[in-house]
Write a structure and sequence with these properties.
Length: about 325
């Protein structure tokens, strides 16, 4: 009975997400119904944008879930650990030294730097004993700020500040046919996380417990970090920064459904898609006919959720 109820709930959530995606396909200043170029614009712009919403939302939400498991901390995700800042630095260096590089080359550079940044964060956590879990995301934000400052200095020195600002303003306005297809790679991230979900759950119990249960902890951390870096790098190249998405979704799903990672994976993906789609729709209609970067809406919502979680965590600690 419970399995059937969960199945109906998942089907209902999927239908809601499909409705949101349909709204995304039909929302925009260009009239696709009366214009003679409506069908062409629909195929070139609306469909790629909606596909990008699905892939980037699912990828970043799942990246946050994996990172929270590996760090045993609910307050971390790629934008609160400096991972996205490292990906942006790699992208900027590639754009400067190889200005004619393909989008695949830019993605490789962003993924490589994101992996380095994530590993630096994990190594820092292993070497430094932090008494409070609330300090961990603050340390990650500080590390990200340092990397961001380096990127800003480099951008000023090389007259690339406009490129940097475009990256910081994560938006789906530049997503169109021929520029988004690399996002399909994140399906490999989703599949990879699903395959090793049980081992990631065991790794989330800590190195000692995971080792006693027969899991190669170091290997799982390495694979998990590589998956996070791949998703973050790809999304950064195509869309830009999507702040707090990986923080909001896993925490909301966990509060409603508990901490079973394998059964939570579909919910995390659906919730990630729903959140980023709603924020993108708001970004398109708030100041129409102009469009706000979706990162602005996500930043406001994410900051509120982040502060709420911090205050709840602090209240639990004080008790």
């Amino acid at each position: 009975m419970r399995t059937r109820r969960n199945g109906w709930a998942l089907a209902g959530a999927s239908a809601l997400v499909v409705a949101l995606l349909a709204a995304s396909l039909l929302t925009g200043e260009f009239d696709i119904f009366s214009s003679e170029f409506g069908a062409e614009m629909f195929a070139i712009s609306r469909v790629p944008r909606t596909v990008a919403l699905v892939l980037s939302g699912a990828a970043m939400a799942m990246s946050g879930l994996v990172m929270q498991l590996l760090t045993q901390n609910r307050f971390v995700e790629p934008t609160t650990t400096g991972t996205t800042e490292w990906a942006g630095l790699g992208l900027m260096l590639m754009m400067f030294f190889f200005p004619s590089a393909s989008i695949m080359s830019k993605m490789i550079a962003a993924v490589g730097f994101a992996f380095i940044g994530a590993m630096i964060f994990f190594l820092f956590l292993r070497r430094v004993s932090l008494r409070s879990s609330l300090v961990v995301p603050i340390v990650g934000i500080m590390l990200g700020t340092v990397v961001s400052a380096i990127s800003t200095f480099f951008a000023l020195y090389t007259n690339m500040l406009q490129s940097l600002s475009v990256w910081f303003a994560g938006s789906f306005t530049s997503v169109y046919q021929g520029q988004y297809e690399v996002l399909w790679i994140v399906l490999a991230v989703v599949a990879g996380v699903y395959v090793i979900a049980d081992r990631l759950t065991l790794a989330g119990l800590g190195e000692e417990y995971a080792t006693n249960l027969g899991v190669n902890y170091q290997q799982i951390v390495l694979v998990g970090t590589a998956l996070i870096a791949l998703a973050t790098g790809v999304v950064t190249v195509v869309v830009g920064m999507l702040p707090f998405l990986g923080l909001i979704v896993p925490n909301l799903v966990s509060m409603l459904r508990g901490d079973d990672m394998r059964s939570n994976l579909p919910w995390v993906c659906l919730a990630g898609i729903a959140v980023v789609t709603v924020c993108d729709l708001l970004a398109r209609v708030v100041i129409a006919p102009f469009e706000m970067p979706v990162s602005v809406i996500l930043g406001i919502v994410g900051a509120i959720v982040f502060i709420t979680l911090l205050l709840k965590g602090r209240h639990r600690v004080s008790r």
